[in-house]
Amino acid sequence: MDAYLIAIKNNNITDEECEEFLNDYLKILKYKKLLVIWQIYYETINQLKNFGKNASSKFLTSEMNLKKYALANVYICNSLNAFYMFEQYCEHNFTCFKEEIKQRIYDNNFSYRLIYNLRTYSTHCEIPISKIKKYIKYNDFSEINLEFLVSKNEFCEAKGLQPKVQKEVSEIIREDDIQILNYFKEVELILLKVITDIILHDKIRIINVYEKASKYIFGKPYKAASYFCRKGITNLCVIPNLKFFYYSLMEVLLENEYCNQYIDETRENIEKLCVKIKNIMNFC
Asked: What are phi and psi for residue 233, nearest 5 degrees?
């Protein structure tokens, strides 16, 4: 019978210890959701890139029309919303992000500042994409793609944005329009770095959750079973969530070749964390 469904008193386990484990377990769910949100952002950027590739040939034979223009802005707005969802989720759920990571990331990355303000611009000021144009890479007609452009003048003159960032845009970007896709892709890697910083900051808590889970969930029946039952929690949800987090951690931070270039400096620490989890849980 499920250990969570059997209540056998064990004086070595207190309700306080159960509560501590429960709180730490719920934190694991937040890390899991953070990985999911990053994947949402990643997928929205892929949609935007694929739209540029798939629509490019049609742009050679037809003029811009309302549907194409609207679709480009749909994908841009989806990416901006995913970025904002990631930023706000970190802000409200991870103290280390709010107190340490956010300001460092913001101060050191022009791309992050630009996308952060572009989200405000698209919400309160203007449609983000002012025009779309095709380009041919290296004079190879098989490499036709689309550029998604934000009007630099409209962005820099818009009200409600951060004047310092508007000044940066006017000084750094020499063209009349902002080619926005590359900045989205840079932010994709910046957000991945945020995840690694948060995970490694809290790695001791994470390891403790798995160590306790290996005893509480897979060990002998114990008093805490009744405590978790009262909380409406069984291993029908706990075990899959712990597995999901582990495999997501592997997929996003170790097996995603596109992102490895940005996390080489922390890759070894992430690998050690995953190995530790695997050895503790023995479910892989």
From this structure: -115, 130
